[in-house]
Known about the structure:
Elements: H1 2-14, E1 19-26, E2 29-35, H2 41-59, E3 70-76, E4 82-83, E5 99-101, E6 109-113, E7 116-122, E8 128-131
Parallel strand pairs: 2-3
Antiparallel strand pairs: 1-2, 3-7, 4-6, 5-6, 7-8
Amino acid sequence: MYILLAVFFSFRLAIRNPEVIYVNQDVAIMSIVVKQPPLTQKGKIIWWEAHEDAIKEKYGFPKPDENGVYYISLTDGENGFKKSSEDNSNWFSFSNRKLYCFDEIKSEKRCFDNNEIMTVLHDENNKISYLIGD
């Protein structure tokens, strides 16, 4: 029974289908909120490279700064939008959860748990770097 459950959960994780649920752009910075992101570092990079053109076509890319530099931040939006008052980062809270809020969203629920999954950095030498975790 345990082996069957392990196979089921492994299969379920392997077929995750990441979905872009929100995009915010500014000069040289793009924030993309993704539901069901890939779990592994390699999976995140493979997913990004496979979907980069589609995201660029649908949302455009951030305008690079004067040196040609831009950042793309991918955040896990698995838990959906939250009210900004749900942030429990008060000084007396034992939780380290912080919310990342978008002022452009004109709703009470305009925040996500700040769980960055990957940053794509395009530098002035036209080099792409991926920053994942530590």
